[in-house]
From TrEMBL:
<feature type="signal peptide">
    <location>
        <begin position="1"/>
        <end position="27"/>
    </location>
</feature>
<dbReference type="GO" id="GO:0008933">
    <property type="term" value="F:peptidoglycan lytic transglycosylase activity"/>
</dbReference>
<protein>
    <submittedName>
        <fullName>Murein transglycosylase</fullName>
    </submittedName>
</protein>
<feature type="domain" description="Transglycosylase SLT">
    <location>
        <begin position="37"/>
        <end position="240"/>
    </location>
</feature>
<keyword id="KW-0732">Signal</keyword>
<dbReference type="GO" id="GO:0009253">
    <property type="term" value="P:peptidoglycan catabolic process"/>
</dbReference>
<dbReference type="Pfam" id="PF13406">
    <property type="entry name" value="SLT_2"/>
</dbReference>
<dbReference type="InterPro" id="IPR031304">
    <property type="entry name" value="SLT_2"/>
</dbReference>
<dbReference type="InterPro" id="IPR043426">
    <property type="entry name" value="MltB-like"/>
</dbReference>
<dbReference type="InterPro" id="IPR023346">
    <property type="entry name" value="Lysozyme-like_dom_sf"/>
</dbReference>
Length: 273
């Protein structure tokens, strides 16, 4: 699972896009346990309705439950404190590289199309896909709306996750996200685990069917990931190892140094660099 920090730099931009100000993020009173969650939801629903959120999105918020497993995961992010070698072993770096090479061959046309459009080669995309969800094998087990609402209510990072919650509700409202969608503990969505803000900003229709489906469509998830990297400075033809032109875009994906290095190492192995 990716760190929640992925996408932090987008919060202000998307907040503005949604018409949400910093003051609004603090309007509903936060809490550090489940006791005040239901009251907080009612306050937040009023704020959301005043900003044009309605219908199924408000219904999804009304059905949200306090996600104690999300809070536990939020307080115990230990893998990013490992050494690079330990992190690679824990995440199965060699196995990801091996399967990634096979998937690159099996999906050659897709990856060629993505690289032509966004300038991002297959290697780092497969590295991200493999580390995030085991190539779509496990997308999480938490209700996305509940997870994000819980973190918006929690006092530790209220403003950041309030912006994520508004994005989540907009995705539900426009039909991109099901109200019952299941994802990762911090609300990450789909095969490459996008935070809701990033789905709004970088999600693209990679398979040409007219909609964005980060869960069921690998083409949408991978093209969106390439679009994210391009949006963070990726330039076609540049290297992506530490110190090279595109490593900064990889740093935009996740704030943990070991994660960034793992993407670069696994990606290079897949790309034969």
């Amino acid at each position: 699972m990716a760190s929640f920090a992925k996408g932090t730099i987008l919060a202000a931009a998307v907040c503005a896009m949604l018409g949400v100000g910093a003051g609004a993020a603090q309007a509903a009173r936060c809490g550090n346990n489940a006791a005040g969650f239901e009251n907080w939801k009612q306050e937040f629903k009023q704020e959301a309705a005043a900003r044009g959120i309605g219908g199924r999105a408000l219904g999804a918020l009304d059905n949200a439950k306090y996600a104690s497993k999300t809070i536990h995961a939020d307080r115990n992010q230990k893998s990013f404190k490992l050494s690079l070698g330990q992190f690679m072993a824990k995440r199965g770096g060699k196995q990801i590289a091996s399967k990634g090479k096979s998937l690159k061959k099996q999906n050659a046309a897709l990856f060629a199309s993505i690289e032509q459009r966004y300038g991002v080669p297959a290697g780092p995309l497969l590295a991200i896909w493999g580390m995030e969800t085991g190539f779509g094998g496990f997308l999480g087990n938490q209700n996305t709306v509940s997870a994000v609402a819980t973190l918006a209510y929690d006092c530790r990072r209220t403003e950041f996750f309030t912006n994520q919650l508004y994005a989540t509700l907009q995705l539900v409202q426009n039909g991109t996200l099901s109200p019952s969608a299941i994802g990762a503990a911090h609300g990450e969505i789909g095969q490459t685990q996008f935070l809701p803000v990033n789905v709004l900003k970088y999600g693209v229709d990679g398979d040409g069917n007219g909609r964005i489906d980060m869960v069921k469509s690998k083409a949408d998830a991978l093209a969106s990931t390439a679009n994210f990297l391009r949006g963070h400075g990726w330039r076609a033809g540049g290297g992506y190892q530490p110190g090279q032109a595109n490593f900064g875009a990889i740093q935009g994906w996740n704030s943990a140094s070991v994660y960034q290095q793992a993407i670069a190492i696994i990606g290079a192995e897949i790309d034969g660099q």
